[in-house]
């Protein structure tokens, strides 16, 4: 460890650190960058004060290189000029050093005031967290190397790593943010930048997770309230991941407004839950005090974030009128970050900081959260620090928010307008809605129109009927979307039941864009796809249950580890289990075929993973679109073996899944490609192959002349024919 961080002259930044260094610690601090000795009389800026003519120091900062001691076993510092940490853990100790060094090299540190600080105290942590969590974090100080290795899997499941310095660093990190807030609220400085780690916004009241141990910002906000320094606190979280811990800490608090812009992907992006969805708005007295802007995927940039600030963040913030503003400043939405995969530039971070600095009389604290590209976080932090020091952010030029961002903001506005008078839903309407003259046209949801039309069409053409749902929540979400033939419980002529699970798709995604959308063409195209498959099922005299989950498609491919996920949407999984328990399992049909189309693939796989389907299900077909795919349970070896023998996956030839060689090898001969790019086209294209595959799985092979026995299954899973002639049968 000493070799890893060096033994240069220490930077004294906190009371506790100073004492450790004076008494001789086994750890060593990081050397100051050249020519950056802190100045006692920091750069002063005259600020008008209503109660005094005294001069207030413009900006403070919190930094202690001892926080770098939280690291993985065998950690070696990343090169000074590297953008990221290569094969190491993304939460690299160098993150804070690179930020501090960049600020120092640009002459900003000497213009700022260093804030001495203590470690967070037990009673302060208890304002947010449980004593059990405190004990868990403190316990890491006493772990041996063997214990750390034994517990590695446990911590990895929580997206954490630990060492014996972890607890010390976590206390420093939380203490640093508290001191930054204290100094701002006491007007010792106008604003402050807390360059701290480990981060905190994922840490929940009873659990540490996601690189976070204590929720630094939440503890600091509670401490300000306790001391009467700030009653109303605004926490703006622009980290690319949702701050589940911060939101949960203030879920019922009317005096803390939590606002987050994050990559959500329907709850499949970390922290992998629906808690960051736009309808998560708080509870009880805190209702309306949680504001989530959930981006549906990667790739969002300056125009999207600035648009969100103009339409949602700032109007609500002004109406809330906080006493203190804290930014949970994760820089993993920055252009170049490998985890966030978004494209926010330093200039945009500067503009967002500039807008927030107009609130609470300028009382603004920036607390570092995530951000894992070392170049991107140092550039972004530099832009924010310049704004804190009073510099004007650079021009951004012409910006136009993306279609996906515009739609997201519109949906957020509709939700938040229930709680905030300042939200103008009309101003947030996408262009095609805004063009409708007020009162001259009735606006109907396209999915609702399609749902009603489709149920009528399937009844009149195919004699299919709606399936009643006894569960109230399922009936509310899926009423009229589950269709079956009249004899679905009966064995029928062939004993085959096809369960077809699909969505309608997003009309705008399936065309060139908003300006070229042709609703009639997209609707008929998708309906023709469904009709062709149902006609085939009817002609084969199979039974059918048609499940329309009515979800929208994303606007771009998911990438990286989110391409394959453990589970799909909770309500859709509940629906599939309900149908299995009440219809499919009770049917006399012993040959079940599961076909998933688009997002229906996730629902099909949730059923495969959560019910014992192997006896009745003879074939699983997935026609994948842009959504993530749900993998079979890797711990159930028998089911995995069965699945590989009976599954087929059809994807577009340019599908991002095929770019991952590891996943491609694992799936092997289960994957088939189509030259079509749209999921509706793929189903049309591969339907003949699906027919052949299903027939091979469910149809009895032709028998030799005189044979009266059917196909049976041998012990090795291969079909064998028990041949008996009619003569032998008669003799028996």
From TrEMBL:
Residues 448-700 form the Arb2-like domain. It catalyses: N(6)-acetyl-L-lysyl-[histone] + H2O = L-lysyl-[histone] + acetate. One of its GO terms (cellular component) is histone deacetylase complex. SUPFAM superfamilies: Arginase/deacetylase. GO terms for biological process: epigenetic regulation of gene expression. Residues 704-732 are annotated as: Disordered. GO terms for molecular function: histone deacetylase activity, hydrolytic mechanism. InterPro entries: AB_hydrolase_fold, Arb2-like_domain, HDACs, His_deacetylse_dom, His_deacetylse_dom_sf, Ureohydrolase_dom_sf. Residues 89-387 form the Histone deacetylase domain. It comes from the Eukaryota. Its EC number is 3.5.1.98. Transmembrane segments: none annotated. Residues 706-732 have a biased composition (Polar residues). It is found in: Nucleus. It is an enzyme of class 3 (hydrolase). Keywords: Chromatin regulator, Hydrolase, Nucleus, Repressor, Transcription, Transcription regulation. Belongs to the histone deacetylase family. HD type 2 subfamily. This is histone deacetylase. It comes from Cryptococcus depauperatus CBS 7841.
